[in-house]
Design goal:
single chain; mainly alpha; 12 helices; 0% strand; globular
Protein backbone atom coordinates (compact mmCIF):
# COMPACT_ATOMS: atom_id res chain seq x y z
CA UNK A 1 0.00 0.00 0.00
CA UNK A 2 2.91 2.34 0.73
CA UNK A 3 4.40 1.71 -2.72
CA UNK A 4 1.05 2.17 -4.47
CA UNK A 5 0.47 5.46 -2.69
CA UNK A 6 4.01 6.62 -3.48
CA UNK A 7 3.26 5.89 -7.14
CA UNK A 8 0.18 8.13 -6.96
CA UNK A 9 2.06 10.85 -5.10
CA UNK A 10 4.94 11.13 -7.58
CA UNK A 11 2.54 11.17 -10.52
CA UNK A 12 0.41 13.83 -8.83
CA UNK A 13 3.55 15.92 -8.22
CA UNK A 14 3.69 16.41 -12.00
CA UNK A 15 0.09 17.64 -12.30
CA UNK A 16 1.12 21.30 -12.66
CA UNK A 17 4.04 20.54 -14.98
CA UNK A 18 3.01 17.77 -17.39
CA UNK A 19 -0.36 17.21 -19.12
CA UNK A 20 -2.33 14.26 -17.74
CA UNK A 21 -2.24 11.98 -20.78
CA UNK A 22 1.43 12.69 -21.45
CA UNK A 23 2.25 11.68 -17.86
CA UNK A 24 0.15 8.52 -18.16
CA UNK A 25 1.74 7.69 -21.50
CA UNK A 26 5.32 8.04 -20.28
CA UNK A 27 4.66 6.14 -17.06
CA UNK A 28 2.86 3.39 -18.97
CA UNK A 29 5.86 2.88 -21.24
CA UNK A 30 8.09 2.29 -18.22
CA UNK A 31 5.54 0.04 -16.49
CA UNK A 32 5.04 -2.03 -19.64
CA UNK A 33 8.80 -2.51 -20.05
CA UNK A 34 9.24 -3.57 -16.42
CA UNK A 35 6.27 -5.96 -16.42
CA UNK A 36 7.26 -7.24 -19.87
CA UNK A 37 10.70 -8.23 -18.54
CA UNK A 38 9.00 -10.00 -15.62
CA UNK A 39 6.54 -11.81 -17.90
CA UNK A 40 9.34 -12.88 -20.24
CA UNK A 41 11.39 -14.16 -17.28
CA UNK A 42 8.38 -16.23 -16.15
CA UNK A 43 7.84 -17.61 -19.65
CA UNK A 44 4.38 -16.04 -19.74
CA UNK A 45 4.59 -15.19 -23.44
CA UNK A 46 4.80 -18.90 -24.28
CA UNK A 47 1.51 -19.60 -22.47
CA UNK A 48 -1.43 -20.57 -24.65
CA UNK A 49 -4.49 -18.52 -23.72
CA UNK A 50 -7.96 -19.99 -24.20
CA UNK A 51 -10.75 -18.17 -26.01
CA UNK A 52 -12.68 -17.50 -22.80
CA UNK A 53 -9.63 -16.03 -21.11
CA UNK A 54 -8.93 -13.84 -24.13
CA UNK A 55 -12.43 -12.36 -23.89
CA UNK A 56 -12.10 -11.80 -20.15
CA UNK A 57 -8.65 -10.24 -20.50
CA UNK A 58 -9.98 -7.91 -23.20
CA UNK A 59 -12.89 -6.88 -20.97
CA UNK A 60 -10.58 -6.47 -17.97
CA UNK A 61 -8.12 -4.40 -19.98
CA UNK A 62 -10.79 -1.99 -21.23
CA UNK A 63 -12.04 -1.54 -17.67
CA UNK A 64 -8.47 -1.05 -16.40
CA UNK A 65 -7.75 1.67 -18.96
CA UNK A 66 -11.00 3.50 -18.18
CA UNK A 67 -10.45 3.21 -14.41
CA UNK A 68 -6.89 4.56 -14.67
CA UNK A 69 -7.94 7.57 -16.73
CA UNK A 70 -10.86 8.40 -14.42
CA UNK A 71 -8.91 8.02 -11.17
CA UNK A 72 -5.84 9.93 -12.34
CA UNK A 73 -8.08 12.72 -13.66
CA UNK A 74 -9.49 13.09 -10.15
CA UNK A 75 -6.04 12.71 -8.56
CA UNK A 76 -4.59 15.53 -10.68
CA UNK A 77 -7.36 17.89 -9.57
CA UNK A 78 -8.17 17.11 -5.93
CA UNK A 79 -6.36 16.25 -2.67
CA UNK A 80 -4.71 12.84 -2.80
CA UNK A 81 -6.29 11.75 0.51
CA UNK A 82 -9.81 12.56 -0.72
CA UNK A 83 -9.38 10.69 -4.00
CA UNK A 84 -7.87 7.72 -2.15
CA UNK A 85 -10.65 7.73 0.46
CA UNK A 86 -13.34 7.52 -2.22
CA UNK A 87 -11.55 4.60 -3.89
CA UNK A 88 -11.47 2.76 -0.53
CA UNK A 89 -15.13 1.86 -1.12
CA UNK A 90 -14.05 -0.49 -3.93
CA UNK A 91 -14.06 -3.68 -1.75
CA UNK A 92 -17.66 -2.92 -0.76
CA UNK A 93 -18.63 -2.29 -4.37
CA UNK A 94 -16.91 -5.53 -5.45
CA UNK A 95 -18.90 -7.46 -2.82
CA UNK A 96 -22.12 -5.97 -4.21
CA UNK A 97 -21.03 -6.67 -7.80
CA UNK A 98 -20.16 -10.29 -7.01
CA UNK A 99 -23.63 -10.77 -5.54
CA UNK A 100 -25.30 -9.29 -8.63
CA UNK A 101 -23.07 -10.88 -11.29
CA UNK A 102 -21.99 -14.20 -9.78
CA UNK A 103 -24.89 -14.73 -7.40
CA UNK A 104 -22.64 -14.88 -4.35
CA UNK A 105 -24.48 -14.94 -1.05
CA UNK A 106 -24.52 -11.60 0.77
CA UNK A 107 -26.55 -11.30 3.98
CA UNK A 108 -28.53 -8.28 5.13
CA UNK A 109 -25.78 -7.20 7.52
CA UNK A 110 -23.27 -6.89 4.71
CA UNK A 111 -25.81 -5.09 2.54
CA UNK A 112 -26.20 -2.56 5.36
CA UNK A 113 -22.41 -2.26 5.59
CA UNK A 114 -22.23 -1.63 1.83
CA UNK A 115 -24.90 1.06 2.12
CA UNK A 116 -22.99 2.64 5.02
CA UNK A 117 -19.78 2.63 2.97
CA UNK A 118 -21.46 4.41 0.09
CA UNK A 119 -22.90 6.91 2.58
CA UNK A 120 -19.30 7.53 3.68
CA UNK A 121 -18.40 8.36 0.07
CA UNK A 122 -21.24 10.90 -0.05
CA UNK A 123 -19.98 12.46 3.20
CA UNK A 124 -16.59 13.00 1.54
CA UNK A 125 -18.03 14.22 -1.76
CA UNK A 126 -20.83 16.32 -0.18
CA UNK A 127 -22.76 16.99 -3.40
CA UNK A 128 -24.39 20.39 -3.28
CA UNK A 129 -22.10 21.67 -0.53
CA UNK A 130 -19.99 24.77 -0.98
CA UNK A 131 -16.78 22.76 -0.91
CA UNK A 132 -18.01 20.21 -3.46
CA UNK A 133 -15.30 19.28 -5.95
CA UNK A 134 -16.76 18.08 -9.23
CA UNK A 135 -13.54 16.15 -9.89
CA UNK A 136 -14.60 13.68 -7.20
CA UNK A 137 -17.20 12.40 -9.67
CA UNK A 138 -14.30 11.05 -11.74
CA UNK A 139 -13.14 9.03 -8.72
CA UNK A 140 -16.68 7.67 -8.24
CA UNK A 141 -16.87 6.65 -11.91
CA UNK A 142 -13.46 4.98 -11.51
CA UNK A 143 -15.02 2.76 -8.83
CA UNK A 144 -17.47 1.36 -11.39
CA UNK A 145 -14.67 0.46 -13.80
CA UNK A 146 -12.46 -0.99 -11.04
CA UNK A 147 -15.31 -3.26 -9.97
CA UNK A 148 -15.79 -4.36 -13.58
CA UNK A 149 -12.04 -5.02 -13.82
CA UNK A 150 -11.95 -7.08 -10.63
CA UNK A 151 -15.03 -9.12 -11.54
CA UNK A 152 -13.53 -9.80 -14.97
CA UNK A 153 -10.24 -10.81 -13.38
CA UNK A 154 -11.99 -13.29 -11.13
CA UNK A 155 -13.09 -15.30 -14.14
CA UNK A 156 -9.59 -15.64 -15.68
CA UNK A 157 -8.20 -19.16 -15.20
CA UNK A 158 -5.23 -19.64 -12.89
CA UNK A 159 -3.20 -21.14 -15.73
CA UNK A 160 -2.94 -17.68 -17.30
CA UNK A 161 0.02 -15.72 -15.90
CA UNK A 162 -0.87 -12.65 -13.84
CA UNK A 163 2.19 -10.89 -15.25
CA UNK A 164 0.87 -11.45 -18.78
CA UNK A 165 -2.53 -10.02 -17.83
CA UNK A 166 -0.90 -6.91 -16.37
CA UNK A 167 1.42 -6.60 -19.39
CA UNK A 168 -1.56 -6.55 -21.76
CA UNK A 169 -3.21 -3.87 -19.61
CA UNK A 170 0.00 -1.81 -19.52
CA UNK A 171 0.54 -2.06 -23.27
CA UNK A 172 -3.07 -1.08 -23.91
CA UNK A 173 -2.79 1.87 -21.53
CA UNK A 174 0.34 2.96 -23.38
CA UNK A 175 -1.46 2.80 -26.73
CA UNK A 176 -4.61 4.61 -25.57
CA UNK A 177 -2.78 7.36 -23.67
CA UNK A 178 -0.40 7.78 -26.61
CA UNK A 179 -3.35 8.39 -28.94
CA UNK A 180 -5.00 10.80 -26.48
CA UNK A 181 -1.71 12.66 -26.06
CA UNK A 182 -1.83 13.46 -29.77
CA UNK A 183 -4.97 15.56 -29.20
CA UNK A 184 -3.38 17.66 -26.45
CA UNK A 185 -0.26 19.60 -25.65
CA UNK A 186 3.15 17.92 -25.41
CA UNK A 187 5.70 19.59 -23.15
CA UNK A 188 9.45 18.91 -22.92
CA UNK A 189 10.47 16.63 -20.04
CA UNK A 190 13.57 17.33 -17.99
CA UNK A 191 15.66 14.79 -16.08
CA UNK A 192 13.95 15.50 -12.75
CA UNK A 193 10.46 14.96 -14.18
CA UNK A 194 11.55 11.77 -15.92
CA UNK A 195 13.03 10.53 -12.63
CA UNK A 196 9.70 11.12 -10.87
CA UNK A 197 7.87 9.21 -13.61
CA UNK A 198 10.36 6.34 -13.26
CA UNK A 199 9.88 6.24 -9.47
CA UNK A 200 6.10 6.25 -9.95
CA UNK A 201 6.30 3.37 -12.43
CA UNK A 202 8.71 1.33 -10.29
CA UNK A 203 6.55 1.80 -7.17
CA UNK A 204 3.45 0.73 -9.12
CA UNK A 205 5.13 -2.49 -10.27
CA UNK A 206 6.62 -3.23 -6.82
CA UNK A 207 3.27 -2.60 -5.14
CA UNK A 208 1.62 -4.97 -7.61
CA UNK A 209 4.21 -7.70 -7.00
CA UNK A 210 3.98 -7.40 -3.22
CA UNK A 211 0.19 -7.43 -3.38
CA UNK A 212 0.01 -10.53 -5.57
CA UNK A 213 2.58 -12.35 -3.43
CA UNK A 214 0.72 -11.53 -0.23
CA UNK A 215 -2.67 -12.60 -1.57
CA UNK A 216 -1.23 -15.91 -2.78
CA UNK A 217 0.56 -16.95 0.42
CA UNK A 218 -1.49 -15.25 3.15
CA UNK A 219 -4.93 -15.72 4.66
CA UNK A 220 -7.07 -13.38 2.53
CA UNK A 221 -9.38 -12.61 5.44
CA UNK A 222 -6.39 -11.44 7.47
CA UNK A 223 -4.50 -9.71 4.67
CA UNK A 224 -7.32 -7.84 2.92
CA UNK A 225 -8.05 -5.27 5.67
CA UNK A 226 -4.48 -4.01 5.37
CA UNK A 227 -5.45 -2.35 2.09
CA UNK A 228 -7.03 0.39 4.19
CA UNK A 229 -3.57 1.46 5.34
CA UNK A 230 -3.40 3.09 1.89
CA UNK A 231 -5.61 5.82 3.33
CA UNK A 232 -3.14 6.48 6.16
CA UNK A 233 -0.28 6.79 3.67
CA UNK A 234 -2.38 9.11 1.50
CA UNK A 235 -3.10 11.46 4.41
CA UNK A 236 0.56 11.55 5.44
CA UNK A 237 1.81 12.08 1.88
CA UNK A 238 -0.85 14.73 1.25
CA UNK A 239 0.34 16.72 4.25
CA UNK A 240 4.08 16.26 3.69
CA UNK A 241 4.31 16.61 -0.10
CA UNK A 242 1.33 18.80 -1.01
CA UNK A 243 0.36 20.60 2.23
CA UNK A 244 -3.13 19.11 1.87
CA UNK A 245 -4.75 18.85 5.29
CA UNK A 246 -7.89 16.66 5.46
CA UNK A 247 -11.04 18.37 6.72
CA UNK A 248 -13.42 16.92 9.29
CA UNK A 249 -15.88 15.63 6.66
CA UNK A 250 -13.17 13.71 4.84
CA UNK A 251 -12.06 12.10 8.13
CA UNK A 252 -15.65 11.20 9.10
CA UNK A 253 -16.44 9.75 5.67
CA UNK A 254 -13.18 7.78 5.63
CA UNK A 255 -13.93 6.34 9.08
CA UNK A 256 -17.37 5.21 7.90
CA UNK A 257 -15.94 3.58 4.73
CA UNK A 258 -13.12 1.81 6.56
CA UNK A 259 -15.44 0.67 9.36
CA UNK A 260 -17.94 -0.72 6.86
CA UNK A 261 -15.17 -2.45 4.92
CA UNK A 262 -13.64 -4.05 8.00
CA UNK A 263 -17.09 -5.26 9.08
CA UNK A 264 -17.69 -6.97 5.73
CA UNK A 265 -14.33 -8.75 6.07
CA UNK A 266 -15.33 -9.80 9.59
CA UNK A 267 -18.67 -11.18 8.38
CA UNK A 268 -16.95 -13.07 5.55
CA UNK A 269 -14.55 -14.69 8.02
CA UNK A 270 -17.49 -15.74 10.20
CA UNK A 271 -19.31 -17.20 7.20
CA UNK A 272 -16.18 -19.08 6.14
CA UNK A 273 -15.76 -20.59 9.60
CA UNK A 274 -19.43 -21.64 9.68
CA UNK A 275 -19.32 -23.48 6.34
CA UNK A 276 -19.40 -27.26 6.89
CA UNK A 277 -16.18 -29.01 6.00
CA UNK A 278 -16.23 -31.94 3.58
CA UNK A 279 -16.30 -35.22 5.52
CA UNK A 280 -13.24 -37.39 5.15
CA UNK A 281 -13.57 -40.67 3.32
CA UNK A 282 -13.84 -43.81 5.48
CA UNK A 283 -10.42 -45.24 6.02
CA UNK A 284 -8.77 -42.25 4.37
CA UNK A 285 -6.00 -40.15 5.84
Amino acid sequence: MAFLNTNDAFLKSLSDEVPLFQAIFLRSIIVTLLVGILAWHQGAFRTRIGRRDRRLITFRTLAEVAATICFLTSLFNMPIANATAIIQSVPLAVTLGAALVYGESVGWRRYLAIAAGFAGVLIIVRPGAEGFNAWSIWAMVAIVFIVARDLGTRGVSRETSAALVVFVAGASMTAVSGILTGFGEWVPIDAGQLARLAVSAACLVIGYLFGVTTMRVGDIGFVAPFRYTLLIWAIVVGIVMFDEWPDIWMLIGSTVIVGAGLYTFHRERLRSSERPKSPSRPGGS
